[in-house]
Amino acid sequence: MFAKFKAFIVNQKLKWFGRFVYYLLILLLLFFMYGFNDASAGSYIYNDF
Amino acid sequence: MTPYGSFTFFFIIAILLAPTIILGLRGKRFHTYNMLATIAALGLIFSSSLNQALALILFTIWQVLLIRLYIHYRKQSNSNAIFYTAVFLSILPLAISKLLPYFSDINVIGFLGISYLTFKGTQIIMEIRDGLIKKEPPLAKLLYFILFFPTISSGPIDRYRRFEKELETEISGNDYKQFLYDGINKIFLGFLYKYIIGYSINHFFIANLRFIAHSQFQHHLYYMYAYSLYLFFDFAGYSAFAIGVSYIMGIKSPENFNKPFISRNIKDFWNRWHLSLSFWFRDYVYMRFVFWMTKKKWIKNRNIVSNLGYILLFLIMGFWHGLEIQYILYGIYHALLMVLYNSFERFNKKHKWWPNNKFTHVAAIIITFHFICFGFYIFSGQLFQKGV
Asked: B202 CA to chain A: closest CA distance, Å?
């Protein structure tokens, strides 16, 4: 059972799918937060030093 | 234009680095093109301020001249006075740019990234002194190292020998695929950190704290934790962008963060937070100080020497952030934590008061987290703001 689960987790196709969903989610969130406007996430704190 | 500050910046960089990607995937050398891309990117970053562009050019000439003169001198002689003078002259523009705003409204010396470029220049002089850099660095490589655009504004602070070694390494098309994959991953992580999580914490929580908190104490408490997380996601987001773009350009810039909020103690924290800066201070301030004190034998107790080294390191780090009270206190606070932890570690080695098991491990992470957040609270300056 555990071996099957392990094989499922390390499956390359699943990894690619996970990565695809992760990228897509980030892109969708960026779209919902900023729309077609340019970003206004503020300056970087450490740029001042 | 602020690096990684807008989607437009990313769009321009994507176009600029398209030839790098094509060359990389075909297994061809791309560093010459990347040098040209760096010039174009620097032009873009500093296009809005002619003053800053001029300051950058003069600063670079200054550092290159210093490095060249010192390496010529070092081949023949090795006087302490000349070494200290070279280090002083290397740091001088940064010191002036930090002090100038207190005396004048116009800062003609400062420019975006001056601190990080200074760290790079000073590091080369110190490594020449130590005999680690023996050959004169070729001008193109030296300029490329100092002005490498992905890390210009806030690091990570790379080391010349490491950078040069990577420039000389041949990258095959297959190897470059991994560079590209890692680079894109890091850029997406940067978007998640800076543009989604960091922005949300700042915009939806910190900005609305006066409506969320019911008392002054609650306000400060919420601010402390929210600011700590915001600072991390802001800076780790920037670092992920900088490292990601470096990877696409075939350079594995050093990491800046390693899950800092799961640190078990303050020493562990400084091995996880702003790594390139803390390692710079460790190698070029702390280690040199400890070595110097041991050599001179002024203080024989190793622990006192080590504690003095930590105090010196964190005081300089505090002053480097700025002469404002919050930064100096931040330095003192971390120096104190380090000295106290050093003493505790020695006491615990002898008496085994704090056992090493899973429960104490989790407890140590929680305690350290709160101490770290209080440090960031000092750093934020909120403690000294009136009318909050």
From this structure: 9
Please indicate whether, in this complex, the C-beta atoms of A23 and B198 are within 8 angstroms of each other: no
**ipTM of model:** 0.84
Where along chain B do its domains lie? Answer: 30-158, 173-248, 260-384
Place of tokens 């080695």: B349
Measure the CA–CA gap between B348 and B315, rounded to whole angstroms: 27
Contact B194 A46 (CB under 8 A): no
Q: How far is CA A1 from the centre of its chain?
A: 30
How far is Cα B372 from Cα B269, in angstroms, rounded to an integer?
Answer: 8
Nearest CA in chain B to A16: B181
- For chain A, which residues make up each domain, given as ranges? 1-32
pLDDT tens, residue order, chain B (388 aa): 889 998 999 999 999 999 999 999 999 889 999 999 999 999 999 998 899 999 999 999 999 999 999 999 999 999 999 999 999 999 999 999 999 888 887 778 889 999 999 999 999 999 999 999 988 999 999 999 999 999 998 879 999 999 999 999 999 999 999 999 999 999 999 999 999 999 999 999 999 999 998 999 999 999 999 999 999 999 999 999 999 999 999 999 999 999 999 999 999 999 999 999 999 999 999 999 999 999 888 888 889 999 999 999 999 999 999 889 999 999 999 999 999 999 999 999 888 888 888 999 999 999 999 999 999 999 999 888 765 5
Is residue B321 flagged as an active site residue? Answer: yes
Contact A49 B154 (CB under 8 A): yes
- DSSP for B330-381, please give it: HHHHHHHHHHHHHHHHHHHHHH--S--SHHHHHHHHHHHHHHHHHHHHHHHT
CA distance B247 to chain A (A): 18
